[in-house]
From TrEMBL:
Single biological process term from Gene Ontology: axon guidance
Pfam families: I-set (PF07679)
Keyword Disulfide bond carried by entry: yes
Segments forming domain Ig-like: 24-110
Chief location category: membrane
Record GO terms (molecular function): cell-cell adhesion mediator activity
Biased composition (Low complexity): 16-26
InterPro entries xref list: Ig-like_dom, Ig-like_dom_sf, Ig-like_fold, Ig_I-set, Ig_sub, Ig_sub2
Protein name stated in the entry: Ig-like domain-containing protein
PANTHER family membership: BASIGIN RELATED, FASCICLIN-2
SMART domains reported in the protein's UniProt record: IG, IGc2
Record GO cellular component, one term: plasma membrane
Key words, A-Z: Disulfide bond, Glycoprotein, Immunoglobulin domain, Membrane, Repeat
Length: 156
């Protein structure tokens, strides 16, 4: 999954525009991003140009995004997501359009979840992590601990 460059063939619905009019272009492709949910903010930059100046619209999974407390479009056309959540993962599209047409750039946002420990009725605690985990066990008492040579851990 790499960055998707702006579509190479913008649409041109109105060819009778003023001679100085320029179809919209997106200056850079959107890079795919990966982050962890929780305390991270993400900005997807979409720098569009054209004459007249294009308007920028953001889509996720093909649907227009609506501003919220956690999500907004900045004056430069960038999309700002605050405190990214696992549900924010997906394909985002920046669509720049003016009277000469439109062009699109796409990026995939991957969001890794934060494993949350949970206990089952048997008193075991289970934690899941997207990455390898090191476990350190401290044992107190006299003499060397009597631990099996190949411990079985109840982690999935």
């Amino acid at each position: 999954m790499g960055a998707s460059p702006a579509s190479p063939h913008p649409t041109h619905p109105h060819t009778d525009a003023a001679p100085h009019a320029i179809p919209p272009t997106i200056k850079t492709g959107l890079p795919d991003l990966s982050t962890t949910e929780g305390s991270h903010d993400v900005a997807l930059q979409c720098q569009a140009s054209g004459e007249p100046a294009p308007t920028v619209e953001w889509l996720r999974a093909g649907q227009p995004l609506r501003a919220s407390q956690r999500l907004r479009t900045l004056p430069d056309g960038s999309l700002w997501l605050q405190r990214v959540e696992a549900g924010d993962a997906g394909t985002y599209e920046c669509v720049a359009h003016n009277l000469l047409g439109s062009t699109t750039a796409r990026a995939i946002l991957a969001v890794r979840g934060m494993g949350r420990p949970r206990s089952d009725p048997g008193g075991r605690t289970e934690a899941r992590s997207p990455a390898p985990v090191g476990i350190c066990v401290l044992v107190g008492g006299r003499g060397p601990p009597a631990l099996p040579s190949t411990p079985t851990l109840p982690f999935a």
